[in-house]
Amino acid sequence: MSLKNKIIDQCTLLQKYYHFRIPFSALGRKRGSMTVEAALVLPVFLFAMLLFSFLGILIRNQDEVQWALTRVAREASAEYGASESEMMKNTLYYQTKLRAYLGTKVPTAHLLESRLIRENDEIDLIVNYQMELPFRVIKIGRCHFRQRVHTRAFTGVEHRGDAGGGTDCIVYVTPTGRVYHKNKNCTYLRLSVSQVKFEDLESLRNGGGGIYKSCERCARDTEVPRTAKVWITNFGDRYHTSRSCSGIKRNIEEISLSEAGGRIPCSKCGEFDGG
After folding, report:
1. φ, ψ at 32 (rounded to 5°)
2. Dihedral class, residue 84 (left if φ above 0, else alpha if ψ from -120 to 50, else beta)
3. What does the pLDDT look like over 207-250, one tens digit per residue?
4. What 8-state DSSP symbol labels residue 58?
5. Element containing residue 256 per DSSP (H, E)
């Protein structure tokens, strides 16, 4: 075999070798590219899922804190109207109530910025708390929250008496009530309605220290699940399964004392001074 033929044979073998090697190299590059893309996309996807889950937890905690803060404010408003105790001006009283409703869900919650029973008997509850982030973003390890509820204590208004100096002054009654009221803002007349769980009624008491029984109108012969929502009032002695129950509503009428008929004065606001 001549030298020329040997060179041609060697070139043919090299051509066949590289012809079969090139497709395998291309396939390897494709597999490597998919691996790199998966390594980049998967952490981003997991981070997004973790972020959305944490946002859901934050929203749920905010709702629970607002519900507990509103309930504490309403109860304190009614209790101060009934007793006017100096204890109601102590932050520790409100902090204890808030802890009882929140438990250990928000351990950092505090009411140090609250303004209690100052100007115009107002109750201004301000809660501050923090939530730990499951990851650190630009050196931020916690989220700070501030929520607020503002209300006024049920202390009524001063009665100014009859302008003409007579005894036939104005009083306030309800169509089915058996008493008349000197103050239109009497806590017995204007009810503060709260929504609670049925299972919590065992530990709750009204403004007079009494327990809550079933309403004859909406809860008679009704088996209420323990987790169901019911409605109670600050000075009532019944729980209601319907917010629209007539036992909760108050239609207040303004009449003269001479028209009160057989109604007796309210034990809280119905006693008049002098003749």
Report:
1. -65, -35
2. left
3. 777 888 888 888 888 888 988 999 888 777 888 888 888 777 77
4. H
5. strand 253-256
